[in-house]
Amino acid sequence: MQTEIRISAPCRIAGLMSALILSACGGGGVDGQEIGKAYADGLTEGVACAFANCKESPDLALSDISAKFYVTQKDGLVQVSASLGQSANLVTTVRPAGADKITATVNGQNLNLADDSKGLRLHYSGQMNENSAQPVVTVSFQRGNDSYPATVTLQPEFSLTSPASPLNLPRGAGVMTVQFNRSLSGTVSAAFNASCQRTDNTSFTASSSIPYSVVSDTYQVSTAELDKALTILSRAANNQKPDTPLVTTCILDFSWNNEVTGIVSNALNRYSNIYGTRSVTHRVNYDATK
């Protein structure tokens, strides 16, 4: 028997409301793409904008518009995603309108960004084939004939030199040590997708970030921390029942993400950012019984 969290339209609405409440208390904001998904499940535009607190960009001064731009490259494909907000207000989504729009270039070549939020104008994305080692990507908020750019240069690709994938990792190992082929500047984060079995032969799938420590240019994940995270995820997938059976084994697909920040036009709000991210993945066969 496999447990998996599936979010229906009504539950997604409730989740968005919770996210809004958390945002008001200083937590993470509601992503325009997530509201677009909920809209696709049956929300009207008016209801969706009640959650996103939509504002039209021409109604705001440039200094009040905060841009969030994300850039990745994998297998020769550059992916750009973009959304707008109002200053540091996490519960407001700004929608380009009138003479305002979002444009992008990759190494000077124009990249079309399309609305991927079901016509709500909450989130835009585009991709382009580009094999250069360090593409320079500029995403701009354009008002009439004037552009206000944000530019990032992606770091070179990096790869895993150890451990071999897949890795057989018993809980008793103490740590999983990861090493890359180059030093990583910027921000490094680790996460995993898990497919796990419990002692009663039930199963669940889940995802989580995971903390790590850096020791002599290696990245180390504690198996105790990993086991703790898997136990929390298992209980969450089992309606938080305190008698949830213990996790025995998991297939873990780890992702290591290296993020750098670029430079944004100072005409836009100071909370604007553009991020460039590289990622590598590897598989771990985790055994909590050994």
What does this structure look like?
- This is Lipoprotein.
- It comes from Undibacterium luofuense.
- Residues 2-30 and 35-42 have low confidence and may be disordered.
- The protein is of the alpha+beta class and 290 residues long.
- The chain has helices spanning 9-24, 32-40, 45-52, 223-237, and strands spanning 2-3, 55-56, 65-74, 77-86, 89-95, 100-106, 109-111, 114-115, 124-129, 136-143, 146-153, 160-162, 167-170, 175-180, 187-198, 203-210, 213-215, 218-222, 247-261, 263-264, 273-287.
- Strands 1, 2, 3, 4, 5, 8, 9, 13, 15, 16, 19 and 21 form a 12-stranded mixed beta sheet that branches.
What key attributes describe this structure?
290 residues, alpha+beta, five-stranded antiparallel sheet, 4 helices, 21 strands, 17% helix, disordered N terminus, Lipoprotein
Overall body shape: globular
- Rg, alpha carbons: 21 Å
Q: Write down the secondary-structure element order.
A: EHHHEEEEEEEEEEEEEEEEEHEEE
Helical content (DSSP H or I, runs of 4+)? 10-25%
> How many angstroms does the end-to-end distance come to?
24 Å
Strand content: over 45%
List the total number of helices: 4
Please tell me the overall pLDDT. 88
Profile the largest sheet: 12 strands, mixed
